Amino acid sequence: MKRRYPSHRPLVRLGLIGLLLPAALGSAAQAPTSTDVIDSEGEDEITAIVPLDEQTQRSAIVSREDAVKPQPRVPGQGKPLAPTFDVTLLEAMAQDLVANQRVPGLAMAIVHKGQVLSARGYGITDVKAAEPVDAHTVFRLASLSKSFAGTVTGMLVSEGALRWDSHIVDYLPSLRFSDPLAAQQLTVADVLSHRVGLGRNTYDRDIERNADYHDLVQRLAAAPMSCQPGNCYAYQNVAFSLVGDVVFATSGQFFSEAVSRRIFKPLGMNDASYGLEGIQASTRWAKPHVRAGGGWTSLMPKPTYYRLAPAAGVNASISDMAQWLVAQTGHRPDVLPAPLLATLQAPIVGTPPEMRNSSWRRDRLDAAGYGLGWRVYDYAGQRVVFHGGAVQGYRGLMAMIPDRDFGMVVLWNSESSLPSGLLPTILDRAIGLPPQRWLDVDPNLETLHAQRPHAPPSTQSAGSTTQRAAATPE
Residues near 170 by Cβ (< 8 Å), separated by ≥ 6? Predict the structure, then answer.
């Protein structure tokens, strides 16, 4: 049974309800036009197509009548974390997960009010040639990459180079759908919020069979349509990557180059890259692991989803991701202005089936939606901005609580589900919810930790690239 916690700000009141009225061209956060601003839904993959008429039978995230311009938040003015929030205990939990190679390696970052409270590695990069995971070990981000795609597109919108309601065919004239009018209607905001109108994960299986992205774009002309663009939600990877063609046509730069110049370099994400060549060129990178007998075996990364750079192409270290959290929580306005962040992180479409995808979602979520490269949740009365990612041998989760000016990310190099419990564990402790056992770690860990003297955690300010602690190999 879902627990209810007192909340003075359900999702409909969270200041998320913004972004649905287009602002003037050139505004720092021109808001995308939306035809379906309704209820809630999922993680890296969604379990159903969510049509507009089904969503309207549920309570709304935001009604069109209530839609207003996004309200940027003021960095550094978030509520304090719960008094019992203990970074060193969370680090001990992460360390326990890699004990005895239950998980080969992982990395975790926690930020608050623009300060990096922790950015560390745990375990090893490769069971066949073990090196410790450290703060600069590079992981594959999979669908965490979508937040970079939404952000770089938003930067171009802020510059007036395009609009959220610009049509994709204006930049990709050859685009065709099975419905002759659909391609003409598809907008940039539709693509970034998975409202393309195609069936869920269209042509993903073909990508997994090494199909070429450009060939699949041509084949969209034969793909069945579930609705008109903008009228239903269904998670995409191939169609999502159309935004890369828009960025190239608008900026004159290849998509990966545009992200590197506009995001990686200004934010000091010095380990970040795109593609298989990028991760293999890294000084230290975590190999993907799959189950083998009673343990793990490492593989070479598959090139398949790397072909979809906007959807799944980024590689980054936990040091990089700490800086991404700092920027996405509003502490790098020189790179990402507050009005842009407010637009990106507000829900456009409801994604209700997502609320059933895992135990913590079933217990904690009262609403869920998708914005522009980000998921948005009502998590026990708190607005949480989230995305997950998964490809063979890699997993990742990233979440922010805007009202607490707080963010966290966990990356790991295996298909284990164990580290997933870190996300609700950390969010619950940041908010101050009653303890719940989301994580399979030593039940005596908290008691033992409380008995040990330990120094208060040091912090780094926004833009810092030094990390709190060295890697702890297992």
Answer: none
Given a cut of 50, whether residue 171 has pLDDT beyond it is: yes
Asked whether the beta carbons of 320 and 329 are under 8 A apart, the reply is no
- 112-156 pLDDT, tens digit per residue, is 999 999 999 999 999 999 999 999 999 999 999 999 999 999 999
Quick one: tokens of 335? 């790179």
Beta-carbon count within 10 A of 46 CB:
22
Q: Is the pLDDT of residue 261 over 80?
A: yes
**Cβ distance 202 to 242 under 8 Å?**
no
Which element (helix H / strand E) includes 218? helix 213-219
Alpha carbon 95 to chain centroid, angstroms: 23
Residues contacting 66, CB < 8 A, separation 6+? 12, 17
Is-contact 428 435, C-beta < 8 A?
yes
Task: For residue 45, count CB atoms less than 10 angstroms from its CB and return exposed for 0-12, middle for 13-18, buried for 19 or more.
Answer: middle
Q: Is the Cβ–Cβ distance between 404 and 57 less than 8 Å? A: no
Residue with tokens 């050139």: 26
Euclidean distance between CA atoms 150 and 281, whole angstroms: 26
| 3-state secondary structure string across 358-393 | CHHHHHHEEEEEECCCCEEEEECCEEEEEEEEEECC
Whole-Å CA distances, 138 to 50, 149, 269, 312, 413: 35, 19, 11, 15, 10
What does the angle CA 53 – CA 55 – CA 58 come to, to the nearest 5 degrees?
120
* CA–CA gap between residue 190 and residue 147 (Å, rounded): 15
Radius of gyration of the CA atoms of the chain, in A: 21
Q: How far apart are the first and last CA of the chain?
A: 38
Distance CA 182, CA 447 (A): 59
Q: What does the CA dihedral 420, 424, 426, 429 come to, rounded to 10 degrees?
A: -160
- The DSSP H or E segment spanning 221 is none
Q: How confident is the model at residue 78 (pLDDT cuts 50, 70, 90)?
A: confident
pLDDT at 53: 47
Among residues 108, 103, 106, 104, the alpha carbon closest in space to that of 87 is found at 108
Beta-bridge mates of residue 381: none
- The Cα 57–Cα 164 span in angstroms is 27
Q: In this predicted model, what pLDDT tens digit does every residue of 416-456 receive, in sequence order?
A: 999 999 999 999 999 999 989 999 888 888 777 776 765 55
What are 9's two structure tokens? 């700000």
Round to whole Å and give the CA distance between 354 and 53. 17
> What is the rounded average pLDDT for all residues in the chain?
85
Tell me phi and psi for residue 273, to 5 degrees: -160, 180
